[in-house]
Write a structure and sequence with these properties.
The chain has about 240 residues and is an alpha/beta fold. It has one domain: P-loop containing nucleotide triphosphate hydrolases (Rossmann fold), CATH 3.40.50. It contains ten helices and nine strands. The longest helix is centred in the N-terminal third of the chain and has 15 residues. The N and C termini lie close together (about 5 Å).
């Protein structure tokens, strides 16, 4: 697929200050925000014959930018008048609610166990974008995500939204992303240019291929160029 590299001298957010990661809202004219819009364009037009609606976002390891990418992609899709739902399916260490500054009291777990309707627990941080946090952490994440109820839930929200973005755990740590990949139309693998090792990338690809996942491409962030301490985003 086509490649895009964009450079940005934006300061990276600290672990406890996740709101600064929403560059598409904070600095919409920046080159980083433009990179997310280009990623949106690739999804909208690169696969015209069979466009993916349910997209799983994962990474080989932790803290490689998958949740940040998921959040910003959701924002630019909503800004393009696409009805978009972000599902936090990292049922072990969820962070999407922190990125958007939302409360994580009720969420997808409550829906899957039949205690709440999805309309009762999703939140709308901006027009056209719904976010469904995890809610209470379950004791059996993999079993819950591989259940018939979850498959029925995905089939239901697929009809309600133009795009459903699933923030999955890192594929190098648990089996959940492979399970989620079977429910989606495609997978975006998010990499960190300074942290992701080639062996971890190869192992992640093998895990996805083993379940027949459709890997749409990779998003590479934290690319340093020259001596200016630049950060970038690359889509391929």
């Amino acid at each position: 697929m086509a490649e895009l590299e964009v450079w940005n001298n934006e300061r990276r957010s600290g672990e406890n200050d996740l709101s600064g990661r929403l560059v598409t809202l904070i600095d919409p004219t920046s080159v980083a925000a433009e990179a997310y819009r280009t990623l949106r364009t690739n999804l909208l037009y690169a696969l015209v014959d069979n466009p993916p609606k349910v997209i799983v976002m994962t990474s080989p390891g932790p803290q490689e930018g998958k949740s940040t990418t998921c959040a910003n992609l959701g924002i630019v899709l909503a800004q393009a008048d696409k009805r978009t739902l972000i599902l936090d399916c990292d049922l072990r260490k969820p962070v999407v609610h922190k990125v958007f500054g939302l409360r994580n009291i009720r969420g997808i777990v409550d829906v899957l166990v039949g205690q709440r309707r999805v309309e009762d627990v999703w939140q709308e941080p901006l027009l056209g974008l719904k976010v469904l946090p995890v809610g209470p952490l379950p004791p059996n994440p993999a079993e819950l995500l591989s259940s018939r109820r979850f498959a029925e839930f995905i089939a239901s929200v697929r009809k309600q939204f133009d795009y459903v973005l699933i923030d999955a755990p890192p594929i190098g740590l648990v089996s959940d992303p492979a399970v989620l990949a079977t429910q989606g139309d495609g997978v975006l693998l998010v990499l960190d240019a300074q942290k992701t090792r080639k062996t971890a990338l190869r192992e992640s690809m093998r895990s996805l291929e083993a379940v027949g996942a459709n890997v749409l491409g990779t998003v590479m962030n934290n690319i340093k160029k020259g001596k200016g301490g630049y950060y970038g985003y690359r889509y391929e």
